[in-house]
Amino acid sequence: MRSYQVLIIGSGFGGQCAAVNLLKAGIDDFRMLERRDFFGGTWCQNTYPGAAVDVPSPLYSLSFAPYRWSQMFAGQAELQRYTEHVIDQFNLRERVELQANVERVEWDELEKRWTVYTGAKGIYYAQFLINASGPLSQPVIPHFAGQDRFQGKTFHTNNWDHDYDYRGKRVAIIGSGASAAQVIPAIAPEVEQLHVFQRTPHWVLPRADRVFGPLQRWLLGIKPAYKLLRWLIYWQFETRVIAFKYSKPAIRMVQKQALKFLKRQVPDPVLREKLTPDFTIGCKRVLVSSTYYPALTRPNVTLHNRDHGIASIDESGLNTVDGQHIDVDLIVWSTGYDATDGVISYPVSGKNAVQLRDVWAEYPRAYLGTSLPDFPNLFIVTGPNTGIGHTSALFIIESQMNYIIDCIRTLKTKGLRSIEVRPEAERTYTEMIHREMERTVWKSGGCHSWYQSKSGHVIAMFPGFSFSYYRLTRALKPADHILS
């Protein structure tokens, strides 16, 4: 019987962070379950051309694993090397089960443990379950009439087919969000024609990237210098919340800068009009790129807005709502992920057979974005309302670990078997989150974004400073929990 104290679902940064924190707490009876046939998560899966981080690399890294980055905003290849660096530094390879796709999990109240069904890899048991599958792991592909008839090549940016040579081809990119803004400049110079289908334009700010010289990379290898740089970047980025939530003049100033950037990079007033959002900056994810706009001005690139959107797809290409037919060889879906309602993709059955899908039927919710009543010993990394729009998601993940490890350590110390948050504690926390959300641009900025669930609640974001979230998760509050 494969039974462990802890099972971690996912092997990306969330899973790695959980594993290292368990080891530091003296807990080595755990396994990581990875559905793919390779270790590493987002930055090993998303290998599309131009893929890169949009948070400065020294901050977008785990505090316990500094790294000599080659540039301020690392590309996918370097992020993958960093992932491998963390895995090897902490000897995590021996603790992962690959191709272990979790199909469902069930709480056993008598045994006080979770039963995890993985299909081909069989059944696992664990006292504690940490879901670290991540919010950007379930790609979304919209449905269009006739799309199954298309005879060309098609794939999502999340699963880029590197065996397909797009050079000299006619390509359509569906979507204009963060991944599209990276793919488009990367492939535009090499394709014959590039058709970009944009539902709504995004606000874009310049990318202040720089390559680190030998001396700077050497300094990054010195822990005090690395720590100082991280905190300087952290506090610089933390001030962005003032615009997102507390100051309308501040957000108007940022929006004015974005409009100036757009005018400077897109001289054509017709194209510029297509690229000007009609919502407040920050309501949707702000794109950070100095190459996106110039790519759209290339003679072989055509931007189609909502008025010229896709009506249907046939064997040779796309039919637009205004009656055009566009022949293409490749369709790239850059249409994002189910990051709210699909935070956990497999069925979860808690105490008394309570189903997570029923609890989340109205909208996903969790105490500290991490735990739920009726689901003992279950912790969700990057769960509801833990997203952060202004700084590194890894800061939030590490904050969650303070709470998760404290829960596990407390039970171990007291000789108890299970812990679950009280319903009233979760309810109070959730009400606070959505009360504070009303003041943010994510709720009141005049857009509909992937930050929102089908219910209209903003589920992806935490409505405040990241250090506020850190304070909330710093230590377990026993009065908010049932221990048994």
From TrEMBL:
Q: What single Pfam family name could you report for this chain, choosing any that match?
A: Pyr_redox_3
- Domain of life the protein comes from: Bacteria
The record, for SUPFAM superfamilies, names: FAD/NAD(P)-binding domain
List, alphabetically, the InterPro entries matched: FAD-bind_Monooxygenase_sf (IPR051209), FAD/NAD-bd_sf (IPR036188)
- What is the recorded name of this protein? NAD(P)/FAD-dependent oxidoreductase
Q: Which organism is it from?
A: Pseudomonas rustica
